Amino acid sequence: MSNDKPRTPKDPGQPPDHRGELGRRLPGPEDAHERNRNSEDRPGEAPEGLDETPTEAQSSSVDDPAIIDSDYAFRQIMVRGRADEYDKAQQAQARLSAGGDAPPSFSKKAAQELQDGQRDAHQSLIDEIPHALERQAIQLEESEGHFDREPDKARIREISVRIYIENDETSPEGVASALEEVLAEHEFTISQDLDTLHGSWFRTLIARTKRSLTRREAQEQMDELVDKLQRAAELRLIHSKQAEVDSAQGSTVAALISSLEGTSDASIQVGSILLAKISGTIYVRNLTQRELVYIEHHPTLLAEPSQILAALEKAPEISTRSLEPPSHQAQMATD
């Protein structure tokens, strides 16, 4: 004896009741219309009222291919933050709905393939990021004269050179000429003159070594140049016979410092060395890798000598040497 209840005939004027094999109501065309209207009101959002947890009917299996409500598939995709997949699923639903009375539906297999493909693409991009950063770091190290933990293996040929002169009474060409002599003394020659901005004078150059240097050798060259610049800057503030002797021994560096006398503000970057003149006071520092990266991303800082030291304080491992004028008593003692 069958336990099926007799079905009550429906009023022909009523809209069809879309019910699936499991006895639940499936979305009909009128539901799709309402859903599309809601989506237009809130573009990029999933329709409201959708549970992230499948119902008992949704969890049940049916004949292959298994069919689940497209709304549930959309919700599962949105839960995983896949807005682009949601858009693709909407397009799939629209194509199914265009067939007429067929209820808009989405197969589990199609939903899974859609998610897997996007996840693989995203993971591939994520996996590539460390390699891209490593390549960028290598390029930066080679171009900016940074020295790694194995200085005898890697070699460099070029460093960046930037000069900014506040255009007072200083001859920018004289400063550039003095700097070229300093570089030549340390086995560097100017290989490229990239650009020069006038008004205030800002020049970007590329210096190339006469021979290929290991990182250790380049580090020694930079350290030697830093010491000479610091010493020459000190000698400009101490008027004594010893200063004259030392100045003669380091004439090229002294000439570079002297060339900046006519301006109150200037900045010069040679690879990992920064020389800044701020309100008449000269600062010399050996830039760390973090500072080099910061300047590389903000090269216009060199056009603001009064701001560059404060800006570099954002990078760690800062060690700035400020060369203050000696006191009156110190000058009397050396005379």
UniProtKB/TrEMBL annotation:
Region (Disordered) location: 1-68, 91-121
Extent of Basic and acidic residues compositional bias: 1-45
Name of protein: Uncharacterized protein
Lineage: Bacteria, Bacillati, Actinomycetota, Actinomycetes, Streptosporangiales
